[in-house]
UniProtKB/TrEMBL annotation:
Entry keywords, A to Z: FAD, Flavoprotein, Lyase
MF term (GO), any: FAD binding
Cofactor, how bound (note): Binds 1 FAD per subunit.
Binding site for FAD: Y30, F79, D178, G179, D180
Official protein name in the record: DNA photolyase FAD-binding protein
Lineage, uppermost ranks: Bacteria, Pseudomonadati, Pseudomonadota, Alphaproteobacteria, Caulobacterales
InterPro entries: Crypto/Photolyase_FAD-like_sf, Cryptochr/Photolyase_FAD-bd, Cryptochrome/DNA_photolyase_1
Domain Cryptochrome/DNA photolyase FAD-binding: 79-200
Organism: Brevundimonas subvibrioides (strain ATCC 15264 / DSM 4735 / LMG 14903 / NBRC 16000 / CB 81) (Caulobacter subvibrioides)
Required cofactor(s): FAD
Length: 418
């Protein structure tokens, strides 16, 4: 097995094991240790759950619930907040898809040869900047970087090397096993001063030295981080209304790399006639291999064979629907990104054949995404009440806020290291 998949085995069983191993450390130990990047093999204070969460081999809900079973909500506050960051970014991008369109346009813009060379040098870890070069190589080799290293790397890429942020975001997306259109694009924009307009993140040698246990103290870093700018974004679009559960009747279940855990999304009474798992190509083949795992689980849960097909196999999906004599394909919503685009194209082709594509949204997303209209700290204030309605009552105190009182939480102040 290649090294990344060795450390992150792409099965739900492996994700559950990682969660079980991490839960005892998700309280104060996490809050104390999460900012330190101890280097490859040393990322023990953080969960390393991101590839499983990214593809929903594990759901945010079960991770949060698992942590709350073991910890006092206040002790787990920091960890839960990080999981909520993920949800916040997803919801925000869902309502501001223009940001994803612009990112792709910037990424694909023609490059002068000097830029091409400088990007290649940065990606190869050949800039001569201590730490930065090590993180570039760690990313390519392992498919993972500590959160603080991602922040430092993005800051040095943009402000010291003067490279386009979208090309750095693209480098991350091509190699991170947790590569995510929302978390990645919006975090890079946050560092660049585009996301929280005018506020940038500057990596300093002292901060790097302190939080790498003295492993690195790079010289020659930029000492100022002037925010990048862009044309004003269009107004956020309202979240499209979607079904919360599939309609009754004969359906084909389509599973995608955006949510490889459909067993937990549908009631036991619902039964598809046929199942297709659409594997997405991705770094280290995590999602592709995880699709095989999802197919096995789905076949067992729904008592039907589940076929794995490549991402663009529209004809094969249409044929599978015909073979099963169904006129609807049910899929868990794919958030803004390549899979959502692929589903749009698929929908157009299916519609021509008289087959409907029905998107279903999980209640976690349905309750939380609409709250991501402003900054994260507003989102976090409103999240507890939404989660209480979803049965996670204890989370209200986990974020330090009582949904009834709506009071300001202890420790709610912004931290630059997130
Ligand atoms: C420039 C940059 C790019 C990033 N790109 C991605 C990406 O493509 N995909 C991705 O999942 N995360 C991304 N992050 C966020 C964060 O770095 C990772 O989620 C985290 O490092 C994953 O490691 P972990 O599972 O050990 O996290 P833990 O600290 O154990 O956190 C638990 C979970 O919470 C979520 N989480 C934690 N921190 C953040 C955060 N700052 N923002 C959003 N969610 C968070 C993740 O799902 C994570 O698995 C990026 C951050 C930066 C600064």
């Amino acid at each position: 097995m290649p090294e990344p998949l060795d450390r992150f085995p792409p099965t739900r069983a492996a994700g559950l094991q990682r969660l079980a191993d991490f839960v005892p450390h998700a309280g104060e130990a996490y809050a104390m240790g999460r900012n330190t990047d101890a280097g490859p093999g040393g990322h023990l204070a953080v969960s390393g759950l991101s590839p499983w969460l990214r593809h929903r081999l594990l759901t945010e809900r079960e991770v949060v619930a698992g942590v709350l079973e073991r910890h006092d909500p206040r002790a787990a506050q920091r960890f839960i907040q990080e999981v909520l960051w993920r949800t916040y970014w997803k919801g925000w991008l869902q309502m501001n898809p223009e940001v994803w369109t612009r990112y792709q346009a910037e990424r694909d813009a023609p490059r002068a040869s000097g830029l091409e060379r400088a990007v290649a040098q940065a990606e190869a870890g050949a800039t001569g900047i201590e730490g930065f070069d090590d993180w570039a190589r760690e990313l390519v080799r392992t498919g993972y970087l500590h959160n603080h290293a991602r922040m430092w790397f993005a800051s040095i890429w943009i402000f010291t090397l003067g490279l386009p942020w979208a090309l750095g975001a693209d480098f991350f997306l091509r190699h991170l096993l947790d590569g995510d259109p929302a978390s990645n694009t919006l975090s890079w924009r946050w560092v660049a001063g585009l996301q929280t307009v005018g506020k940038t993140y500057l990596a300093t040698p002292e901060n790097i030295q302190r939080f790498t246990n003295g492993r690195f103290k790079p010289r020659g870093l930029a000492t100022r981080a002037l925010p990048l700018s862009e044309d004003p974004l269009p107004a956020a679009r309202p979240l499209p209304m979607l079904e919360a559960s599939p309609p009754a009747g004969r359906s084909l279940l389509l599973v995608t790399g955006e949510d490889l855990n459909p067993e937990s999304a549908f009631s036991v009474a619902w039964q598809p006639e046929a199942i297709v798992v659409m594997a997405g190509g991705d770094p280290g083949r995590f999602a592709a291999a995880a699709a095989e795992d999802a197919a096995m689980r789905c076949a067992a849960r729904f008592d039907r064979p589940a076929r794995v097909m490549p991402m663009a196999s529209h004809d094969a999906i249409r044929d599978a629907a015909r073979e099963a004599a169904v006129d609807r394909v049910v899929v868990l919503e794919a958030p803004v990104g390549p899979m959502a685009d692929a589903l749009e194209r698929l929908e157009a082709e299916l519609t021509e054949q008289g087959i409907a594509l029905i998107r279903v949204r999980r209640s976690w997303d349905d309750r939380l995404w609409p709250l991501a209209t402003r900054g994260f700290f507003k989102f976090r204030e409103r999240a507890p009440a939404a989660l209480m309605a979803d049965g996670l009552r204890i989370l209200s105190s986990a974020t330090g806020i009582s949904p009834r009182r709506g009071a300001c939480p202890a420790g709610a102040s912004s931290s630059r290291s997130r």
